[in-house]
Design a protein that fits this description.
CATH class of the largest domain: Alpha Beta
Radius of gyration: 26 Å
Helix content: 25-40%
GO molecular function, one term: protein-containing complex binding
Largest sheet: 7 strands, parallel
Protein name: SDR family oxidoreductase
Number of helices: 14
Number of strands: 21
InterPro entries: ComplexI_NDUFA9_subunit, DUF2867, NAD(P)-bd_dom, NAD(P)-bd_dom_sf
CATH architecture of the largest domain: 3-Layer(aba) Sandwich
Amino acid sequence: MRCVVFGATGYIGGRVVPELIEAGHQVRVVARTPAKLAEVPWRGRVEVVRGDVTVDDEVRASVADQEVVYYLVHSLTRRDFSDVDREAARVVAAAASSAGVRRIVYLGGIVPQHTTLSRHLASRAEVGEILRQSGVPTVELRAAVIIGSGSASFEMLRYLSERLPAMVTPRWVHNRIQPIAIRDVLYYLVRAAALPAEVNRAFDIGGPDVLTYLTMMRKYAAVAGLTRRVVLPVPVLTPWLSAQWVNLVTPVPRALAVPLIESLVHEVVCGEHDISSHIPEPAEGLTRYERAVELALTRIRHAEVPTRWSDASTYGAPSDPLPTDPAWSGGSLYEDLRELHTDADPDTLWAVVESIGGENGWYSFPLAWSARGWVDRVAGGVGLRRGRKHPHRLHAGEALDWWRVEHIDRPRLLRLRAEMQLPGLAWLELGVEPGPDGGSYYRQRAIFQPHGLAGHLYWKAITPFHNVVFGGMVRNITGAAERGLSDTSASPS
């Protein structure tokens, strides 16, 4: 079928597009800034059009000649998100009706019964109602917490669980939640396009486990290899105060924390499972909570997170290509970035870079490196004894002292992953680029992803020594390149 996706630059939209392609559909994606999609792997297999969901003419042009509309847009990080989402839903509903679209598919949130809804859930429900009343058959899939690398709810859970071994929490941590894995959400979204025209309703979707938020944190800690989290619920923390606490303790933006926390006040459990009458469960069954966490963490560890919630954030939360995590997510990144121009040509500079480590040393404060190596050995790590196989040639996957060569793009980039004992994950990138007027640029980036509070304290403790260690590396590597290859095997200092 011909499917148009609104929200393709967001967390869910960016993942459903390749699934629709694999299912054999023709896909058109709508983005206010098409340039954001320039480097996605599926760019050459879709039609990209510019459009804003609040601009009637642009929406009408986007849905023209389309059979299925995927509406995966929301403005949660804006103060007036309810007004914006209401207007956008009305514009899309009217355009879809006028264009003769056969089906609308929308992802909303589970709506608790017999209670006053949070602004977030009330807005999600209102959008679904507007779309269902459009005259176009609409499937509204309602989910609670989505467990997947990069999802906002998962990253908040991850961040709190990893950073705080003990915490004071409000009573809502005992509320029941029915989380669902991102892979199961995508499964239902793709198959909803083919439902018959008489289906025009909302469906609750959830995984096989119903858990409290407290249990979710503790199970997350178990899967992640953390110690058991100590939680003391108290009655005095209102949802608003809880959100301020999340905002204070974590880098999650306040605009995101407030509506998410407000929604957790409710018990969000599926009230029905009627979707099974129209879409059978996956052949392997719905994903258990622990398995969903394991899959998400595996993607994060291997820097294979295809989309992040922050991709669609109006605040433009920064992210780094290694690992692919937004700066406000559960594995906040620290980095030390340095650059220096040298008169040495790129090939000579690269020869020094690829010769680093082993007998050639690390070009800065040898005593500090040696002492750190001994500390690592005492702690049960590999230390600096592994050396290197060849004095001037490296290959991906080989050991290099306490590093592992993760990636080598000769003669531009060498990326090393630390295998020393650390309260987190660490990488070191060494890059070479030709200078516009001769010579070359040496770029060096040390990256650290902390594991819990100890990781954050570790980075802050070693920061005062960075200028000596990392600054010395930059100066001595470029200096060795300028002296020529004949000196690269000399003892660096």
